[in-house]
Design goal:
About 20% of the residues lie in helices and about 30% in strands. It is of the alpha/beta class.
């Protein structure tokens, strides 16, 4: 049996940031477990720039962003085990992992930080009719093939879904000489960052078909083409609009799912809206001593927000280890979402601690709004309002509540809403 004070599961941007923060807060006995053969997570294959604008105030590529934290981690006395798969965790914070050299590892720890990231939604979740030919990939898989393995999955591309990875791969394929015929999106708006729509599609004259979807896949051994159709208000295809598009590759960029199989084993309560754990302001889950951050908690658009959130988890774990157990739901102050808000993280505050400093709120809107009024209300009245010039579901909203705002209100609950107030001026 291996005994550790803190175990971090996942060596991507969330796990790296959380481990570093916990160490800086005084936790000396830390083990970081990563299933890949090197640290960095998904950032290793994200060779485009745009990372680090909030944290470092400069544009970095994904590998550059990850390398800054890897170098910092290596300066610290943090043990790292690579190429290791965690099979099970319990609510008593026992961990079973397997490594091809070390065999089965039984680990007992006082606290755990979950940072396993997320996975892509595959064709099986979409139920598109047709055979199962070669040439259908998730966008992240194709990104790894091109940027790390050095393989081109195809030359004639259709992309289903306008998530950020799909948009970025539209540009990447174009730069490698492939023909990207179109990006097809079910919703009436793009599900990626606005900057990616502009820089990856508009700059390369790649058409984006909103309110469209793929209704049939053609080809038996290799993909030969897809049939695309418009959808109605119920997202059902309008067959009269069906169009055949020849292609040899279909990329799926249709959403990400937080990796919470391990969380469930530890009896962590999940939020139906986010797909991740329910947490307090310290990023502590419903299971005492188990914390969560990054895409395992909720899917992020910017890695800077992942780092920001992971630091809260690292500090929260350090506080837990130094101050002992606190009943997660003692004096719990729920944070509820009302009109215009899809979800909120954290989902509750612990009353005695929430007044000790600035508190971060992360949320997404239910629809695009040219101008929106964010209202943070409570049983004691409105605590804060803020006008946002543009919001869309694919772009996270991060709002801070200051200590003075919380102390003055001393609320028993918070309610968050977004109200559309007209066109952007």
């Amino acid at each position: 049996m291996i005994y550790k004070e803190l175990v971090v599961i996942g060596g991507g941007p969330a796990g790296l940031s959380a481990a570093i923060q916990a160490y800086e807060e005084g936790v000396q006995d830390i083990l970081l477990i990563e299933r890949d053969f090197e640290l960095g997570g998904i950032l290793k294959q994200c060779i485009h720039n745009g990372f680090g604008l909030h944290i470092f105030q400069e544009e970095l590529t994904g590998p550059e962003y990850a390398e800054r934290f890897i170098k910092e981690l290596k300066k610290m006395n943090i043990e790292v085990i690579l190429d290791t798969m965690v099979l099970e965790i319990t609510n008593e914070k026992k961990i079973i992992a397997v490594n091809k050299e070390l065999g089965i590892l039984n680990i007992q720890t006082q606290a755990i930080i979950l940072a396993m990231g997320c996975r892509e939604r595959t064709r099986g979740a979409l139920n598109i009719p047709g055979f199962r030919p070669a040439g259908i990939f998730t966008a992240g898989t194709a990104q790894r093939f091109v940027n790390i393995e050095g393989y081109m999955p195809g030359k004639d591309i259709v992309i289903l879904g306008s998530g950020d990875i799909g948009l970025i791969m539209a540009r990447r394929f174009t730069l490698e000489g492939a023909k990207v015929r179109c990006v097809v999106e079910l919703m009436p708006y793009s599900n990626g960052l606005t900057r990616n729509v502009v820089q990856c599609l508009e700059d390369y004259d790649i058409p984006l078909y909103l309110r469209h979807t793929v209704i049939e896949i053609h080809g038996k051994d290799r993909l030969e083409g897809v049939t695309v159709a418009e959808v109605d208000d119920n997202n059902l295809p309008i067959l009269a609009t069906a169009t055949y598009i020849p292609c040899d590759t279909l990329l799926l960029s249709v959403g990400l799912i937080p990796e919470n199989e391990l969380s469930k084993l530890a009896e962590v309560k999940l939020d139906d809206r986010t797909g991740g754990p329910i947490v307090n302001q310290r990023m502590e889950t419903s299971t005492q001593g188990i914390f969560a951050c990054g895409n395992v908690l909720h899917v992020h658009d910017l890695v800077d927000f992942v780092t920001q959130e992971a630091r809260l988890a690292g500090k929260g774990a350090a506080d837990y280890l130094s101050k002992g157990k606190v009943d997660n739901y003692a004096d719990a102050i729920p944070v509820r979402v009302l009109k215009g808000v899809r979800y909120i993280v954290p989902q509750y505050f612990q009353g005695k601690e929430m007044l000790n400093g600035r508190q971060e709120l992360f949320m997404r809107s239910v629809k695009p709004m040219d101008k929106a009024k964010l209202i943070i209300d409570s049983d004691k009245g409105v605590i804060k309002t803020k006008t946002l010039n543009y919001v869309k579901p694919s772009e996270m909203i991060n709002v801070a509540l200051q200590k003075e705002e919380l102390c003055q209100a001393n609320p028993n609950y918070l309610e968050i809403s977004l109200q559309e107030v007209g066109d952007r001026s």
